[in-house]
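We modelled the chain as a single entity of 595 amino acids. Its sequence is:
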Amino acid sequence: MGYHDNKSYGFLITALLCACVRALVHARSLTSTPLPTTRYFHFNVEWKEVTRLCHTKPILTVNGMYPGPNIAVYEGDEVVIRVTNRVASNTTIHWHGIKQLRTGWADGPAYITQCPIRSNQSYSYRFKVIDQRGTFWWHAHISWQRASVHGVFIIYPRHQYPFSIQIKEDIPIILGEWWNGGVEAVEADIMRYGGGPNVSDAFTINGLPGPLYPCSTKDTFVKYLEHGKTYMLRVINAALNSELFFGVAHHTLTVVEIDGVYVKPFPTPAVVIAPGQTTNVLITANQISPTGTFSMAARPYVTAIVPFDESSTVGFIHYTENTKKSNTPHKKILQHPSTHPPHLSLDYLPPFHDTAFNNKFSNKLRSLASAQFPCKVPKTVDKRVFLTLSLNLQDCPSHRKCKGLLGKRFFASMNNQSFIRPIVSILESRYRNLQNSPISLDFPEKPPHSFNYTGPNSLFDTNMNTRFGSKVMVVPYGTRLEFVLQDTSFINVENHPIHIHGHNFFIVGSGTGNFDYKKDPQKFNLVDPPERNTVAVPSGGWAVIRLRADNPGVWFMHCHLEVHTSWGLAMAFVVENGPKPCQSILPPPKDLPPC
């Protein structure tokens, strides 16, 4: 589906394109810009036998699809997605990046805004997409179900794009992970014994691993591009525990959007994308090749000293003179020697540990800050919260087996609080004023002790135990909030992708080492900082984000490395109702799942 854009930036946009094999799930035709309407979808959560890497296993899916069906709506539409749970396990669905203005009941994280959908039960998520456009996604938000229960959520704009290139087609690219065994067993093992998780067996592009993995030549993503045309790749990192580099051989990518927000366009040979993040790039099919075939690939960006999957997923784009009349069949492309080692070079991707590339890429991200798309960063703040992000080692209980370092258990925390989800959703507890709730309103707004957060630590004589609970923070409606997100060197430093539900935020500053309240604020960008819903906090460093808490409800804030969330690297904050009726959360829907 093509769209025209309005402002010209006058820079060269060279080629990249991959596209989703499966058609977008349209509730109605989106060939022209219709009036705002209500669009209905139905998701069945069900098991499906899937084979990858010569291993066949049942995986959780939506409507039997892996990845799941894509949703496409228009800015201003009301969306109703009825989710029916056809498996024995509980489930929920989160609409990642959708703000859910006054409709927190539809946000989806289990025991934060709703109790799960039980077996053979249904729940209709109903919300409006207001003042949002771009690439988002949806995924399960309970346990590790999002490993296979995820898909694309596109909000098409009601106005032209803020760039002048004509787009031939837009193509979703979902980057994911595949385990030959059951991901449920991986999660169960770390929660029972406190060890680290087994790494995945493959990375995937739109669910397909590609020819560098065993038995996977036939399971390779191929997209046909018309020579000379420009395409938009909607890249999503749906991996559970891996940040990723992504690129296309001999093509420059032009970044135009991150997390559903337009940015000042810039060219790059590759992108770095953390779990939970989305990035839109333009690519023009204007390169020269004897075969007309070019690889695309993703590999992990690694910042921690832990085992990781040292492999790459590969797909291909193939030029044609007309995408509707390709003379080169899919099978012939994958049989050509150029698509296999040793002829297949991935030197366009940065090395696994290339932090310099990551920093250079991140520093180029700037909000558009135009009259049509202003940058509404708070210039002053009402409340500052300092959060340490830590991996912890907990003493092993007596008569228990623990698989973490030194015979202990791994946990994770914010300000030394490891989050425990209550048995009743926090939003429902607050709304109904339930008594005897385990939730407390005293989440610490600074760490219990100041120390050299990123300095050396001894595993043998440092107390790395954490505390556990369901503590939340309460802020009045309209509060201008600032979070200082500080990585720590407990066990090791790591790049934490922190996602906030219900709000976008502005990354006003970041750096290495310990945040300095006296010096670092002087370097804040309060003119055109990038606006996101997920920030990759630098390994061994810090990031400062600002937001206006103008969405009443209860909002989850957590690391999007799934293992860290399981270990407790999360918290929730409550935004109270405002003084006006339009500043209060709407009543809960009648079919809200019971606890």
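As a brief sanity check on the tokenised model: The longest strand covers residues 38-52. The mean pLDDT is 91.
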